[in-house]
TrEMBL record:
Record's protein name: Heme ABC transporter ATP-binding protein
CDD domains per record: ABC_Iron-Siderophores_B12_Hemin (cd03214)
InterPro entries: AAA+_ATPase (IPR003593), ABC_transporter-like_ATP-bd (IPR003439), ABC_transporter-like_CS (IPR017871), P-loop_NTPase (IPR027417)
Function: Part of the ABC transporter complex HmuTUV involved in hemin import. Responsible for energy coupling to the transport system.
Keywords assigned: ATP-binding, Nucleotide-binding, Translocase, Transport
All copies of domain ABC transporter, residue ranges: 5-241
Entry coiled-coil feature ranges: none
Amino acid sequence: MDNVLTAEHLRLTLGQRQLIDDVSLTLNYGEMVALIGPNGAGKSTLLRLLTGFLVPSQGQCYLAGKPLSQWTSTALSRSRAMMLQQTLLRFDWPVEEIVAMGRAPWGPKRMCDIVHEIMMLTGCETLFGRRYSTLSGGEQQRAQLARSLAQLWHNGAPEGWLFLDEPTSALDLYHQQHLLRLLKTLTAGRALHVCVVLHDLNLAALWADRILLLHKGKLVAQGAPQQVLQAEAIAKWYGAEVCVAAHPGSKTPHVFLSP
Ligand SMILES: Nc1ncnc2c1ncn2[C@@H]1O[C@H](COP(=O)(O)OP(=O)(O)OP(=O)(O)O)[C@@H](O)[C@H]1O
Ligand SMILES: [Mg+2]
């Protein structure tokens, strides 16, 4: 497995605060990994470290065996993309121009056919010609997914590492299912490898191959959904009262909040 992404003993300290505390992990080829944890646990910060947008105070991330710091910015941009939790854009372009921005690491050619194909794939086909600022929150989120996939598009499909920070937070039920099914299909082809932050534990249970649970900057649990999503563990790490039962269709864990 020469294309795995590994993190070894990552720490990030800002002032007196330890935001990430000795996190080591491996993200495997063709895997769909969900990163979960309470507000402020460090999920967005960890994604920034894994993608090289933040430099750890200690430790190192390796992609395909090479430290992230030794990758050129172009090679890294063609190999990994990140969809942020919130994206504020200063310019108000049509959606297809926003998606085409993802092609920047591949040179000046705009590749209209690729942009068109990705917009169809991500449910953005109705958004052609619309100014980004006029889109609803969920529509903007779909456009950002399309931009991230455009960045990794190579020979007809996305290839590499895709990191998504709460990509379903503004999506309706149909689009949540559409996005997660799409990511699952793309990872099953083993060319795309996904790490996705999710607050909805039931979405993580249905679609993740593996779940990582972060709490106060530490990785406190990891494994298959059945191993991680247990009522006692959720009560312990989230402080929430829940019960967990099997999903009637998939038999994966389903988390119910107690009233
Ligand atoms: N630049 C910064 N300076 C100081 N503290 C920061 C900075 N960035 C993040 N933090 C703090 O680090 C902690 C982790 O933040 P992070 O955004 O990674 O959490 P998160 O797990 O993504 O939370 P959420 O679920 O709310 O998105 C938080 O307590 C946050 O306030
Ligand atoms: Mg976050």
